[in-house]
Amino acid sequence: MREVAYSDIVNAIKNLIITTATNLPEDTIKALEKALEEEKSEVAKEVIRQLLENAKIAKEEERPLCQDTGLAVFFVKVGEDVKVVGGSLKDAINEGTELGYKEGYLRASTCDCFTRENLKDKVGYNLPAVIHFDLVPGDKIEIEYAAKGGGSENVSRAKVLPPAAGKQGIIDFVKEVVSDAGGNPCPPITIGVGIGGTFEKAAISSKHALFRDVGTRNPDPELDELEQIILQEVNKLGIGAMGMGGTKTALAVHIEKNPCHIASLPVSVNIQCHSSRHSHITI
User: Fold this and answer.
1) Which string of b and e fits 80-108 if b means at least 16 CB within 10 Å?
2) How many contiguous H segments (helices) and E segments (strands) does the chain have?
3) Burial level of 181, CB count in 10 A (0-12/13-18/19+)?
4) Measured between alpha carbons, how far apart are the two ends of the chain, in Å?
């Protein structure tokens, strides 16, 4: 049984959050650069140039990429042969999250859903983190982190379609969600789609799909083809960068699929803004 110190996890999470807030991942940078080359609208091109300049300044000056530094979302794979010493893994992630947001001078955005009172003094600074655990073979802890902003989360949706809706129903639903969102999620966006499972499984899968490097091809040929079809259809909507019109409303579509009940077809669409702040570490 491999042992990992509680304090090591806390420090790793803290540093991960601070770095991710100011450094746009290379996959997102490359996707924006590609969008800049292919965009047809001169206005949208200028907007994308400014997004890339913003990323450059944020990295050089170690300032947040956006004022909305998001809620902390984690997908954690815990090896069956690893043990956290000195505290629980969940507590370590939450403590690291609080320290990361405090020491990184990032906004505390967690509030009571009814009173809208900020919870930094009652629960903790930007706590609790949203954590999805999975138990896997091995002696490692794999942690995927994303800062999920409100603007993109607000326009995300889930729906249970009738099975007869099929692939075309999924395509139409994604287009509807993106069309209704317009410029609100700060495009060009990345679109995570969860298909199958149950209502909540589809929603979680759509969120996890956003952690894949932007624009990488789906290893499943059927899903890869569906991703490309949806991406083409979405980009025909003409919403464009920051809603200014153009041919690059979305940078990528990422799909995760699960088996589902014979009587239902759950579909979830989770949208991420152009500032796709996500990171991965293994401890």
Assistant:
1) eebebeeeebeebbbbbbbbbbbebebbb
2) 8, 10
3) buried
4) 14
253 CB neighbour count, 10 Å cutoff: 27
pLDDT per residue of the chain (283 residues) written in tens, 0 to 9: 999 999 999 999 999 999 999 999 999 999 999 999 999 999 999 999 999 999 999 999 999 999 999 999 999 999 999 999 999 999 999 999 999 999 999 999 999 999 999 999 999 999 999 999 999 999 999 999 999 999 999 999 999 999 999 999 999 999 999 999 999 999 999 999 999 999 999 999 999 999 999 989 999 999 999 999 999 999 999 999 999 999 999 999 999 999 999 999 999 999 999 999 999 999 9
* φ and ψ at residue 132, rounded to 5 degrees: -115, 115
How would you classify residue 93: left for phi > 0, otherwise alpha for psi between -120 and 50, otherwise beta? alpha
Residue matched to tokens 């007869």: 164
Please name each of the domains of the chain with its CATH number. 2-20+65-148 (3.30.360), 151-276 (3.30.1330)
Q: From residue 261, how far is each of 103, 160, 197, 209, 273 by CA, in Å?
A: 46, 11, 7, 21, 32
CA distance 116 to 114: 6
Task: Using DSSP, state whether 217 is helix, strand or coil.
Answer: coil
Residue whose structure tokens are 């979405």: 234
User: Which residue type sits at 76?
Assistant: V
